[in-house]
């Protein structure tokens, strides 16, 4: 009996419109009915061409949903394949060079996936290089957080290096630049520099300041004095002697090579040894060169910097890596800037830098998004030279697709109502064996008890029966998932003060025809959990441009808490065998967020880091279908 029930249940499908579990036949019937209705509406619509465009727009999305994309697709074709062919090095070596001055966000995941993935695909290796050249902005905690996220995404750095490892070597090369007449110490102000670079509108003739004419000895003495601490910040800096007069590229207008940081904060790794620090433009290409990087991949903001990158390595006669630029990934509907995130955290609008409503990688991780889902999202987008401006909904769609086949299924009731089933008879106390995934038998199963008291979701009961409602209502039969027979509501009682239904009396209907719909339930004795369902943190697609700024654009209902949710016994099994899935970056030990599952008919969930042994907190990772606008703003 139990087996045939399980078999029948495995065949049920989710009706995305009503959220009910129904048979294949019933779903087909419903879809046809809706299609007929939609066709009627279209026929009434006097703009048929518009409807046509809509239909064709939808096609690629459903196609993408069906096909499983080659996980290496982004390296096999398009931009990254072209980059490799420009320089088909036998031993590819790339680098990921973050500045340790903040938490990485979803945009950085693209840089990680590209740099580490490109090398891995070509059998090469990747350096994780901390670009620690600006002690005023850098903090110890970011070194750890960044490395942790890289490993969580499933990548292993060949070596962890620091730009600061090269401070002496960089300094020596700066002196060499002076000696060959290619650098000079300048004392000009910001305003002077602007004038030299063509003035306010950039249209006046460019010129060099008098400092450019200093002889080598003077420049050397001044540069050594800078390092000896004899100059105040911003009173002296080393400039490269490029081609400010001839070149149209601002990156060639005698840009800064060395500066004295404003606050003179001691460096995390070199303390007070250095009074001067190399600029990004000076340090980056040289560190790439020192480390033997073959392909230096960065975002398109650095296209103009490619010229100075190549110029400096050539001028110094060192090994020359190849820089190429891809379009960055931006997510709309959120804020990513460090300043904005800091304000949200400090004003208490979110629970911290890792709040699941944010798009830092630590937040996405806490929310329960598996690392593999992030990589497959980036792979799906592909890599080109244009900016990817992506809506949150598209990211979530990709995550949902990834979770569908990679996590087990359980039953969880968000807002429970007690249902007392009379005459349960021989089923009372019986164990049913439930599959953790109807599609993946290898996931195994767990045992759940049938009890005469069960809990269903408040939204699955109506006090008055109506034609279009197929769930529980007085006199109406409804199937309980994995239960041998449907139930029928007989009566219900209400709390006289709140007017809320507190208990439903029901009966098992042994001779009923197959019910139209099935709902989820949990037995008596199920674990109580707190569920946090997050919605968009902002109301608009571009919070920073909102009237009154992003704080004025905050969605006041971005978090709904269900303090009395109940999850069935399969949760213990899912927890014991976490992480789901067993992905590269989480094998060695995932946090609570590795406990992921689909709550049938509800959403995908993961355990939150606020959980304790006795008090489990779950985050919604994503809904089962795209949030309707209404729900998102709830
Ligand atoms: Zn000057």
Automatic annotation (TrEMBL):
PROSITE patterns: AA_TRNA_LIGASE_I
Ranges of compositional bias, category Basic residues: 30-39
EC number(s) from the headed UniProt entry: 6.1.1.18
Residue intervals of the tRNA synthetases class I (E and Q) anti-codon binding domain: 518-574
Pfam families: tRNA-synt_1c, tRNA-synt_1c_C, tRNA-synt_1c_C2
Domain Glutamyl/glutaminyl-tRNA synthetase class Ib catalytic: start-end pairs: 91-403
Domain Glutamyl/glutaminyl-tRNA synthetase class Ib anti-codon binding positions: 408-507
Catalytic activity, as annotated: tRNA(Gln) + L-glutamine + ATP = L-glutaminyl-tRNA(Gln) + AMP + diphosphate
Record keywords: Aminoacyl-tRNA synthetase, ATP-binding, Ligase, Nucleotide-binding, Protein biosynthesis
Keyword match RNA-binding: no
Comp. bias regions, Basic and acidic residues: 51-60
Region of interest (Disordered), residue spans: 1-68
Single GO biological process annotation from the record: glutaminyl-tRNA aminoacylation
Stated family: Belongs to the class-I aminoacyl-tRNA synthetase family.
Protein name: glutamine--tRNA ligase
Protein source organism: Aspergillus avenaceus
């Amino acid at each position: 009996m139990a087996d045939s029930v399980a078999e029948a249940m495995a065949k049920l499908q989710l009706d995305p419109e009503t959220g009910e579990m129904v048979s294949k036949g019933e779903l087909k019937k419903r879809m046809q009915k809706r299609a007929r209705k939609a066709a009627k509406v279209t026929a009434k619509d006097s703009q048929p061409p518009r409807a046509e465009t809509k239909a064709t727009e939808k096609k690629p999305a459903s196609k993408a949903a069906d096909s499983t994309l080659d996980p290496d697709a982004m390296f096999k074709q398009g931009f990254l394949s072209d980059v490799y062919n420009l320089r088909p090095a036998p031993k590819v070596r790339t680098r990921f060079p973050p500045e340790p001055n903040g938490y990485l966000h979803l945009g950085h995941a693209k840089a990680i996936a590209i740099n580490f993935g490109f090398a891995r695909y070509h059998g090469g290796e990747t350096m994780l290089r901390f670009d620690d050249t600006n002690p005023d902005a850098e903090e110890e905690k970011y070194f750890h957080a960044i490395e942790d996220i890289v490993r969580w995404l499933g990548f292993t750095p060949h070596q962890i290096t620091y730009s600061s490892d090269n401070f002496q070597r960089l300094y020596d090369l700066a002196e060499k630049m002076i000696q060959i007449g290619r650098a000079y110490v300048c004392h000009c102000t910001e305003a002077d520099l602007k004038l030299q670079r063509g003035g306010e509108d950039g249209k006046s003739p460019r010129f060099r300041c008098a400092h450019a004419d200093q002889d080598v000895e003077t420049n050397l003495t001044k540069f050594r004095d800078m390092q000896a601490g004899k100059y105040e910040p911003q009173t002296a800096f080393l400039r490269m002697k490029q081609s400010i007069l001839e070149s149209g590229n601002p990156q060639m207008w005698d840009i800064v090579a060395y500066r004295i940081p404003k606050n003179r904060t001691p460096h995390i790794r070199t303390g007070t040894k250095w009074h001067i620090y190399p600029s990004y433009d000076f340090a980056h290409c040289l560190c790439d060169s020192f480390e033997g990087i073959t392909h230096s991949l960065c975002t398109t903001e650095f296209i103009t910097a490619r010229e100075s990158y190549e110029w400096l390595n050539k001028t110094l006669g060192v090994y020359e890596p190849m820089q190429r630029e891809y379009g960055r990934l931006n997510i709309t509907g959120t804020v990513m800037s460090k300043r904005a995130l800091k304000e949200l955290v400090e004003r208490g609008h979110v629970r911290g830098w890792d709040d699941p409503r944010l798009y830092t990688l630590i937040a996405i991780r806490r929310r329960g998004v598996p690392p593999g889902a992030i990589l497959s999202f980036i792979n799906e987008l592909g890599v080109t030279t244009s900016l990817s401006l992506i809506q949150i909904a598209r990211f979530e769609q990709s995550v949902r697709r990834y979770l569908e086949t990679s996590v087990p299924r359980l039953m969880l009731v968000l807002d429970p109502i007690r249902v007392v089933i009379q005459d349960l008879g021989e089923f009372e106390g019986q164990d049913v064996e439930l599959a953790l995934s109807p599609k993946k038998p290898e996931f195994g199963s767990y045992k759940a008890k049938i009890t005469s008291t069960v809990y269903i979701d408040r939204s699955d009961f109506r006090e008055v029966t109506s034609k279009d409602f197929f769930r529980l209502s007085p006199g109406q039969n409804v199937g309980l998932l994995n239960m041998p027979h449907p139930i029928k509501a007989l009566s219900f009682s209400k709390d006289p003060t709140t007017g809320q239904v507190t208990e439903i009396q029901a009966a098992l209907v042994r001779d009923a025809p197959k019910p139209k719909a099935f709902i989820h339930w949990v037995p008596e004795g199920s674990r109580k959990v707190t569920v946090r369902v997050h919605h968009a943190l902002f109301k608009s697609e571009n919070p920073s441009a909102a009237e009154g700024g992003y704080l004025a654009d905050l969605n006041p209902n971005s978090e709904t808490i269900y303090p009395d949710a109940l999850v069935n016994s399969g949760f213990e099994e899912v927890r014991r065998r976490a992480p789901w899935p067993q992905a590269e970056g989480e094998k060695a030990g995932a946090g609570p967020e590795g406990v992921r599952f689909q709550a049938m008919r509800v959403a995908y969930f993961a355990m939150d880091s606020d959980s304790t042994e006795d008090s489990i907190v779950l985050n919604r990772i994503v809904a089962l279908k795209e949030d309707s606008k209404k729900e998102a703003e709830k």
